[in-house]
Specification:
Strand content: 15-25%
CATH class of the largest domain: Alpha Beta
Strand order of the largest sheet: 2-1-3-4
Number of helices: 7
Order of helices and strands: HEHEHEEHHHH
CATH topology of the largest domain: Glutaredoxin
Number of domains: 2
Distance between the termini: 38 Å
Radius of gyration: 20 Å
Structural class: alpha+beta
Length: 162
């Protein structure tokens, strides 16, 4: 059976999650996908494909890396994303599968968002290192840097985000 045959006959959009058991980002993404599968129950179906166990499915749709999410409507690919996503980005992905959002809607925070956090933290660390009277800013800078790095960590998003 091919992936196209498996998806044929479904009246709802389908999000296919391509993963591998050895993939760390896949393991971090899995509980988030399960959470959204429950949230979108009855509106979106989720199919999980282990690329090691079913390499033909991945090859059929040109998956070259994991984790990869592909949404299909009536057997036609609507959207594709390779790499990790936070819960908000994943929700955008699912909403675009249902047609609530355009398939071109960005699924992650813009790159400048993270760059601004990191840049601000580094400025505070630099100022705190040069001016002894405001040495306490070093702690603020480290805190900001920690929170910026936390946004990149899929495991942190899985465990600590509501």
């Amino acid at each position: 059976m091919t992936l196209a045959q498996r998806l044929k006959g479904t009246d709802r959009p389908v999000v296919v999650q391509f993963h591998a058991p050895w993939c760390g980002p896949c393991k971090a993404l899995a509980p988030l996908v399960t959470r959204l599968e429950e949230e979108f129950q009855g509106r979106v179906d989720v199919v999980r494909v282990d690329v090691d166990a079913q390499p033909d499915f991945a090859k059929e749709v040109g998956v070259r890396g994991v984790p990869t999410l592909i949404s299909f409507k009536d057997g036609v690919e609507i959207r594709r994303h390779t790499g990790g996503l936070d819960l908000d980005g994943l929700r955008v992905f699912f909403r675009s599968a249902t047609g609530e959002l355009k398939a071109t809607e960005p699924v992650g925070k813009p790159a400048w968002h993270l760059a601004a956090k990191i840049g601000s933290a580094l400025v505070l660390l630099l100022v705190a290192g040069r001016i002894p009277e405001v040495a306490w800013l070093r702690w603020v800078g480290f805190g900001m840097l920690f929170w910026a790095m936390r946004d990149l960590c899929l495991a942190c998003q899985t465990v600590s985000r509501p």
